[in-house]
Amino acid sequence: MTASLRTEPRLADPDGFYAALMEAHRGLDDDASRRLDARLVILLANHIGDDAVLREAIALASAAAEQGGG
Amino acid sequence: MPATYTNPRFPFRRPLALGRAGAEEARVVIVGGGLTGLTAALDLARRGVASVLLDEDDTVSEGSRAICWAKRTLEIYGRLGLGERFLRRGITWNTGRVFFREREAYSFDLLPEQGHEYPAFVNLPQYHAEEWLVAACEDTGLVDLRWRNRVLAVENRADGALLSVETPDGAYRLHAGWLLACDGARSGVRRALGLPFTGQVFRDRFLIADVVMRPPFPAERRFWFDPPFHPGQSVLLHQQPDGLWRIDFQLGWDADPDAERDPGRVAARVRAMLGPGIPFELEWVSVYTFRCRRLERFRHGRTLFVGDSAHQVSPFGARGGNGGVQDADNLCWKLAAVLDGRAPEALLDSYDAERGPAADENILHSTRSTDFITPKTGAALAYRDAVLELAERHALARPLVNSGRLSRPAVLADSPLSTTGGGAPDGMLPAGSPPVDAPVLRNGEPDWLLRHLNADGRFTLLAFDDTGLRAPAAPPGVGLVVVAEREGAPGHLPGVLFDHSGLAARRWGCAPGDAVLLRPDGHVAAGFRAPAPEAIRVAHGRALGRAAA
Hints:
With 70 residues, chain A is mostly helical. Chain A has helices spanning 14-25, 30-48, 51-67.
């Protein structure tokens, strides 16, 4: 096992990041928003560039939806 | 009616066995005179093995079928003596260009390096190749081509297969010592044996339009995602010889196949694509759906399934015809070795062990391409479009664009015939790899390495030396090819190939003193550094299926 997904809080300005994300989506319809998110995922995935980390992230994201709600 | 090609009609000859009691005997029977069956018949004949080839029709393939011949396939036809004709008659292309909506997203070069006899792809309609194969088979005098011979029943037995064959003049029985089922995706042999053919059906329809025209496009593969002239769908364009072009329109699952075949409707689609300035004639129209599926095993006793009868893929990636040719390439030397008594019958299990994973790889790529080309959900569509939106400006997204992962030769990893870990130097082409070409000089003349490997149909020991004065001894049944780093002093071994560019040594990862044992299909069986004769002999035995359990 080499690198693994880092799950501790790492963002210096979480509110600022969130606001930038919302700003990017402002005024987009659902389809355009979906494509924006997809472009982001692809850019970030390429930046990470580690298949094991990416698969871990996919698994974690999928599990969060199953366990969440309530 | 095609304007650029007229199908030949081959004569029906009355089989001698008609009306006789008992079954006619043949050592090898091939069912299906299509691309795969003819290739297998020719390969066997080149190895001195006679066969009877049964085909229910009396001509080569009708209309538009396989068109893209991959480098590895061309190399195989080179070995069979037809490679030059593909180069001369076909359209060579190396560039693929991808468009998204109204713009070009990017282009790619499939064979960016020079120094190979054959290009990445040559486009040529399948019927030309089949016609050459028929003539080449006839010329060997070893292929008994029986047109209009339809197999009605197959009984699989321990000593081969018993066939009931119907002809225009009546029926006869034929006992095959070995049966090669090359009878396509709808294989009658497979059905007769009750073997399941399982996999995935894709809920989409495609329209093939072959048109004759003289447009100002270069010879390259062009693929459009969601173009303005065919919104929401994909389109693929390929050039063929004789002014013939293949256009493949995705139609969607709800399209009405009969309505879509209407020539007026097809012409309107083509005109929308080409614009008003390019006149064209429709040559061929068909509407198809496709599946990806395979047999669980390709060997059933003495019946072997080859090509589409064993596995079926989508057309994206040129993996159907090329896969069938590589099946035949893999199988025929093994069958010849078994028939000659040089190898145990168990060698034929390796056909399944090697080509099964190759078929899985083709199906995997084909399925992934299809999922990219025809997204089935909103999320899949969003991701596909996102990749294409990024691709034009950002190279990082281009590897994700999947308009068909074009056929590459199978690397037979984990082959039971390979000798691994036995002192092969790091960086040497690993066991199972297909052979790699390089320019060489022979007697001062430019030549190609691959022309000399397995040229006699046997195993080859490819030995690298500095001067071409020395080479390891090849065991019986193994030919020797010596590649020298420098042009040798007087007295170098006869037939030495001079690696003047250094590309042979670099591509094979070999230094002077190294040697590679190649199977008759050119795949690497074992690599050695300063090999002992015993090590080569053992690896040769293993590659013939004589490995100790």
